[in-house]
UniProtKB/TrEMBL annotation, chain A:
Cofactor note: Binds 1 [2Fe-2S] cluster per subunit. Binds 1 FAD per subunit.
Gene behind the chain: pyrK
Binding site for [2Fe-2S] cluster: 224, 229, 232, 246
Family: Belongs to the PyrK family.
Protein name per UniProt: Dihydroorotate dehydrogenase B (NAD(+)), electron transfer subunit
Species whose genome carries this gene: Salicibibacter kimchii
Length: 259, 310
């Protein structure tokens, strides 16, 4: 965990209200696990809370990392206005539990399901899996055609099977990621997912199979981002304890916590 | 490690502080996370997360929401309970050269007494801070913080079992007259110091859905937005009592600390700003000496003297 100024290398729009920000700085050295995130200080003195954004890709050779964010409000709106050469202060990488990309074996059925801006950390996970020779299938869900991003990037990964779903049917297949999941002939060995809470809940229900090792990445409004303020807790599956999403997550095994 | 700056030292009941800066209760847990970022021995003291008799899970999420130059929180006093704090958290903090201000909460006066009994002999607990002003729990908290008689009775009960000095943390959710009455009542009941302010009760509504953003609907407002309220209350209370005051509410910079000391605070606590910048406490501590130079003041104590005389 470091807190550093990172330099904006590029900030470009890749879909409706969705931007890809490439950053460089020594913090990149510490990034080694998909699912972890950065706590981004938004420029301007009036915002007291940082914005958690997942790491979408890292290139250790060049010394850059990438985040993808959707303009949802004042903070992400301001990030969208940053330009190459600007400095942004970030704390990260945060989260001790990311997607366990080191576990799936070559030949196993690995399925990644992303909804909207839940897609970016799965892209990082896919890159790491493919690097180890594991092929992956991905289901990407978006509201509408204009919101789609990273379809080509996933296609370019060797052996990657990509299925795009849109809620309004304006591109890819009409329906939700759960419809696509239910159409698969057999349960996957590994399932990694990130997206809205309702989607994760549905996935956990529909993919509950003894063969499937399922993991979900959670979002919650955060204060500190490091485990000190108790803002982002969720109950463990058995109701006996709790986990801090920022610290002990943000990725949890199916049933580890209450979705 | 920073060099020792004798000009920054402050000695308060139970708290011998290298400098007047401590992280505020609830914004620093028990120090473990921030210890990964800097040496906790640099701090003047550490105010730990509000501790109750039993472990508490707190309120449903979302528990925080941002506001203009501030934030709302409705954590609901989540903590591992007094025994776990004593056995697991305080020993961790004892690894650092820094006194602990143990923040205590409860639903009943008996619970406050129980927590103080459990923690009072921990060697690194320098003093207690009674949170009688938490707006985020249904029972206890705020009800003790608005009624001077209840606050005084609680203070007296705790004083009977505490081997350490006791600070009482006051709420801004009261009238001016009531704030003065509360300060005087707890002083008469034996309080060794005051902390002010806790958060102001507030609310936000999601403009897209019409629903409150916080699951608890309402929460406590903190951050720079509350700074003028904090300064006003410290100033007013300082006019009626000479008890030590730990001032807090929206401090973000060394300049803010100077303002609080001029208002009549003896030391300060920093809450929300830790989230904005996790290094805010050590950064401020480092900047304080040049502020003293600029003001041609010998020590932090001189500022407070100046302040009282305003
Ligand atoms: C671990 C984690 C990873 C995330 N990764 C991504 C990502 O890769 N791409 C992406 O587009 N978004 C991601 N998000 C969501 C993103 O943090 C919010 O969309 C963003 O904070 C909204 O900020 P804003 O100022 O634009 O919105 P506002 O609504 O103006 O923000 C107000 C406050 O609410 C908080 N907030 C609002 N929405 C969310 C949310 N969904 N989750 C957490 N806090 C929220 C903000 O952080 C801020 O404190 C992630 C969230 C978490 C917790
Ligand atoms: C997330 C959060 C949790 C808090 N928890 C406590 C607590 O447990 N006990 C307490 O006395 N005050 C608690 N407070 C209040 C702070 O200690 C402080 O009085 C207040 O936030 C004002 O300071 P600030 O503006 O610097 O944050 C909490 C504040 C925040 C933001
Ligand atoms: S955001 Fe503070 S504990 Fe998770």
């Amino acid at each position: 965990m470091k807190n550093e100024q990172m330099m904006v290398v590029e900030n470009k729009t890749i879909a409706a209200k969705t931007h890809e920000l490439t950053l460089s700085g020594p913090l990149v050295d510490a990034i080694d696990q998909p699912g972890t995130f950065l706590h981004v200080a938004v420029p301007g003195d009036d915002l007291v809370l940082r914005r958690p954004i997942s790491i979408a890709a890292v290139d250790q050779d060049v010394g850059t990392c990438t985040i993808v964010y959707k303009e949802m409000g004042v903070g992400t709106g301001r990030l969208a206005r940053s330009r190459a050469g600007d400095q942004l202060e970030m704390l990260g990488p945060l989260g001790e539990q990311g997607f366990p990309v080191e576990k799936p074996q070559v030949g196993e059925d690995v399925l990644l399901i992303g909804g909207g801006v839940g897609v970016p950390p799965l892209y990082y996970a896919a890159c790491e899996l493919v690097k180890r020779g594991v092929t992956v299938s991905v289901i990407l869900g978006f509201q509408t055609a204009a919101a789609i991003f990273y379809e080509r990037e996933f296609h370019e990964l060797p052996g990657c099977d990509v299925r795009v779903m849109t809620d309004d049917g304006s591109n890819g297949h009409p329906g939700t990621v759960v419809d696509a999941l239910n159409e698969r002939p057999s349960p996957p060995d590994w399932l990694f997912s990130c997206g809205p809470r309702g989607m994760l809940r549905a996935i956990e229900t529909h993919a509950a199979h003894p063969k499937t090792n399922g993991y979900v990445s959670l979002e919650e409004r955060m204060g500190c981002g490091i485990g000190a303020c108790f803002a982002c807790v969720c109950e463990t599956g058995d109701g006996s304890s709790y986990r801090k999403i920022c610290r002990e997550g943000p990725v949890f095994a199916f049933k580890e916590v209450v979705l | 490690m920073m060099e020792k700056e004798p000009r920054l030292q402050v000695t308060l009941p139970g708290l011998t502080m290298k400098n007047p800066v401590m992280p505020a209760s609830g914004c620093f847990a028990f120090g473990r996370e921030y210890a990964e970022l800097f040496d906790l021995s640099e701090l003047g003291a550490v105010a730990i997360k509000g501790t109750t008799g039993e472990a508490r899970f707190g309120n449903p999420t979302p528990r925080v929401a941002e506001t203009s130059s501030g934030m709302l929180n409705a954590i609901g006093l989540q903590n591992p309970g007094a025994q776990a704090v004593r056995d697991e958290e305080l020993p961790f903090l004892a690894g650092y050269d820094v006194p602990v201000l143990a923040n205590v909460s409860g639903s009943t006066p008996e619970e406050y007494v129980e927590v103080v009994q459990t923690l009072t002999d921990a060697p690194n607990v320098g003093a207690f801070e009674l949170n009688i002003s938490c707006p985020n729990v249904k029972e206890g908290g705020i009800q003790f913080g608005t009624d001077p008689d209840a606050a005084a009775a609680l203070t007296a009960a705790v004083k009977q079992v505490s081997t350490k000095p006791v600070y009482v943390k006051l709420s801004p959710n009261v009238t001016d007259v009531n704030a003065i009455a509360l300060a005087l009542a707890v002083e008469a009941a034996g309080a060794d110091g005051l902390s002010l302010i806790n958060t102001l009760l507030g609310m936000r509504i999601d403009a897209h859905t019409g629903k409150p953003i916080l699951a608890n609907e309402k929460g406590g407002l903190s951050g720079p937005a509350v700074k003028p309220v904090a300064l006003r209350m410290i100033h007013d209370v300082r006019q009626v009592t000479n008890l030590p005051i730990i001032g807090m509410g929206g401090i973000q910079s060394a300049e803010d600390v100077i303002e609080f000391l001029f208002a009549g605070a003896d030391a300060v606590a920093i809450g929300t700003a830790n989230f904005t910048n996790p290094f805010v406490c050590p950064t401020i501590i480092r900047e304080l000496p040049s502020w003293l130079d600029y003001l041609a003041m010998e020590s932090v104590g001189d500022l407070r003297q100046q302040g009282v005389n305003i």
